[in-house]
Amino acid sequence: MLQTLLMMIMFAANLVQAAWKDYEETRDLSLDAVGVETLQIEAGAGSLDVTGVPGADRIVVAALIRVPDADADEAREAIADGLVLSLDRDGDRADLRGFFDDNGSLFGSNLTVSLEVRLPDGISLSIQDGSGSVELRDVRGDIELDDRSGSIRMTNVGGNLNVTDGSGSIAIEGAGGEVSIVDGSGSVSVVRVEGSVTIEDGSGSIDVNEVAGDLIIPDDGSGAVNYTSIAGRVDQAD
Hints:
globular, ten-stranded mixed sheet, 20 strands
């Protein structure tokens, strides 16, 4: 009798655990990139990972869609109601959209779309990102990033960078052009830049090293400022 009762309790516990398991689904997108000069990305909650690939002729996207604490039927209904996911082309511009509409879902803002993007390395990027980490590497075109929250990391990027960030750390290692950063809060680290660097910061530490041009900090808010190996002039707010 006791053994039967224990088995019933374990079975019920397994059912509860299954009911609260996160639902995940992957979708793939692809687009001919010949003649594309700029990829415009609109992303919501979820991570964004972009890598430039030398010699590539397509933009390839893997989207990981996550619905927390939902069974398959509930998750599929939420995805059908609110998911925006598309990769289209308009002349020399490609548009990638990956986010959930705010449609009053019972899952609220916990629905996420994480995007992994591979593209020809010479394409420029224009990104609007909601929340979640952003990582960019080996992109040789210009990059414009407007990020609400979440960490940002850029490695071996070739063009000019314009970053506007609400909160979260920023780390740039290897940039081939001018770097401009407007940051609300969070640490800023910039290393190995072939152009000049301009940083306006609300709060958080600033560390800048190995800059071929000038370092301009018109507003450093609060937090320590450290810099070394600046070839040009240094202009820092008092």
